[in-house]
């Protein structure tokens, strides 16, 4: 089973674990591949660690803890899993007022410069739909979107990009990347207007910009011409994020940015998020991973059935409160 819980809710995951336990009791041997360490310690008997295609070690689950497992996976100690930094926030950059659309019902929130707004909730809560409405990938039926004090009306993704909104899809292989194209082509495809003069692409500028991001993101690829489909999941995700950043957005929407990514690549992605936050970029972090939302966000809002059911300063939130809101209990507070 290769990442079998990627698209499952907690309840569905629990049902899967019950089936796995029944199969084990019937004598079936199971290879369970996952980046979610909690699952490894919950369902597995033995652990085998691979890194960069090489065997690192194996042991019984009862003989190892999470810190040691992470060290084996990344080849070094991770002192702090979620390296949130404190940044003085600027003025309001994005103001969403009573927006309704596909799967979204009367949603209002603001986002400041240099702020990370975490968006939590269960699958089907409307988180992705809201982001796509803001970006222009889904139609908006009512409400207003104000960006830097100016009302905008994105009706397609191109409009979103032109208005300075970049959306990094939760489905990098389906929506975020073109697997048959190279690293360079995937990274620059949304920025060709900035890299062109008339109808002519300035290839030297394109190569320079791509190489800069490859170095900045520490993307492991033999060359910029390597097919994106040949890269690891973590490096593909870095390319997807770089593609959005190359458009020089005012608002960066990251939808499940570390899904299917190993703990080492996660830490690198978190450090990059912090870098752009420190530079004043406004960031929306959509994630099903509650520790990630709690660890990286400044404020958190929770959605259920297309509506906001909770909004908190990150320091005042915990997993129990977020889960209560995610299942529809309205405990909304005014964030500081």
Brief synopsis:
The protein is α/β, with parallel strands linked by helices. The protein contains twelve helices and 14 strands. The chain is globular, with a radius of gyration of 21 Å.
Task: Report the strand count.
Answer: 14
The CATH architecture of the largest domain can be given as: 3-Layer(aba) Sandwich
**What portion of residues belong to β-strands?**
15-25%
Number of helices: 12
Mean pLDDT: 90
Task: State the order of secondary-structure elements, H for helix, E for strand.
Answer: HHEEHEEEHEEHEHHEEHHEHEHEEH
Strand order of the largest sheet: 8-11-12-5-13-14
Structural overview:
The structure is a single chain. It is built from twelve helices and 14 strands. Residues 332-336 have low confidence and may be disordered. By secondary structure, it is α/β, with parallel strands linked by helices. It folds into two domains: 10-74, no CATH class; 92-326, P-loop containing nucleotide triphosphate hydrolases (Rossmann fold). The chain has a six-stranded mixed sheet, sandwiched between helices. A four-stranded antiparallel sheet has the order 4-3-6-7.
